[in-house]
Write a structure and sequence with these properties.
about 325 residues; Rossmann fold; 2 domains; 11 strands; about 40% helix; globular; binds phosphoric acid mono(formamide)ester
Length: about 325
């Protein structure tokens, strides 16, 4: 059975076919690809874009979407196997996943890291448990990667730049008062490399380099699809000649569970904000971010309001690419 847990499981050709169909769906939004089908959307974390775009997208394809806030609308779930359930969890994922799988044709899962122990978080236990037990395709709505955002980002870039191969893509860390998920950064890195871009990862120091699993995968894509990967801690050289700047904040992996020690480092790098001065160093680059974004912390008002800012187009694309993805999954 085909899941959509990570784009790494899908070929470039398959992803490009989804992007092409997303453009069809942008032009003609109403189809019946999901007629008599249903999708459960299980959220362990908040959402604006993901929830709205999936609910609406399923409806626009003739299906039914049911959104559940885990632990509020549904029972708190246990995931560890073979141990007495003596905590607050009333139900085990083994039953919950199988039951949902008897009702619906697809299940979307949003489950962020716990931010205490990266070695635990990187197992991605919640979504992998659903994939193991549900018996229906599982869609990643953001866990430790955000593959739907990857597709939306690539569509926005292709729509503005055309062919992406050989274009310089700068993935820049930005300041945020709290340590955030690495998911979108992992995904942006892999997607840009898979589509042949020359990727520069700009971050404060080596502690902000992303998990080796994703760095390695991006390196493999660069070798296979004609791009390259550069790590930089220098703002001027990273922005120089960039065609696309993509911003995200994330917590440094070595500090998971020890965030008080990371705080002085992140506080010392507030100047990583994306502003007009930095954008002027680029090759008339576009800018984007997955949203939500704290204005004048991650990017200035001027950057967010500029014509070169693709953030709203990228957010709109979530609707189109997810519909195309579900249509592809429905065909099997
Ligand atoms: N980008 C994104 O996933 O937005 P939400 O968190 O609002 O769903």
């Amino acid at each position: 059975m085909k899941h959509f847990l990570t784009t790494a499981d899908w070929t470039l050709e398959a992803l490009q076919a989804i992007l092409a169909d997303a453009e069809n769906l942008k032009r003609s939004p109403i189809r019946d690809d999901l007629k008599n089908k249903a999708m459960a959307l299980l959220f362990f974390n908040p959402s604006l874009r993901t929830r709205t775009s999936f609910e609406l997208g399923v409806q626009q394809l003739g299906g039914t979407a049911i959104a559940l806030n885990a632990g509020q609308d549904s029972w708190p779930l246990a995931f560890d196997e073979g141990v007495p359930m003596l905590g607050d969890e009333e139900e085990h994922v083994i039953e919950a996943a199988q039951v949902l799988g008897r009702y619906v044709d697809f299940i979307g899962i949003r489950s962020f890291p716990k931010f205490k122990n990266w070695q635990e978080d990187r197992k991605d236990q919640v979504i992998k448990s659903f994939a193991k037990y549900a018996g229906v395709p599982i869609v990643n709505m953001e866990t430790i990667t955000h593959p739907c955002q990857e597709l939306a980002m690539i569509k926005a870039l292709q729509d503005r730049h055309g062919e992406l191969k050989g274009k310089k893509f700068v993935l820049t860390w930005t300041y945020h008062p709290k340590p955030l998920n690495t998911a979108v950064a992992n995904s942006a890195l892999m997607a840009a490399a898979k589509f042949g871009m020359d990727v520069t990862l700009l971050c404060p120091n080596e502690n902000y380099i992303l998990d080796q699993r994703y760095m390695k995968k991006a390196g493999e894509y660069a070798a296979g699809f004609g791009g390259d990967i550069t790590i930089s801690h220098d703002i001027d050289s990273a922005y120089a000649g960039a065609d696309a700047v993509y911003a995200k904040s994330w917590g440094a992996i070595p500090y998971f569970g020890n965030w008080d020690e990371e705080r002085p480092i992140r506080d010392a790098h507030k100047h990583f904000i994306v502003d007009e001065e930095k954008m002027q160093k680029t090759n008339n680059a576009t800018f984007s971010h997955c949203l939500p974004l704290r204005r004048n912390v991650k990017a200035t008002d001027a950057v967010m309001n500029a014509d070169y800012c693709l953030a709203i187009e990228e957010a709109e694309n979530r609707l189109h690419v997810q519909k195309a993805l579900l249509s592809a999954l429905a065909k099997g």
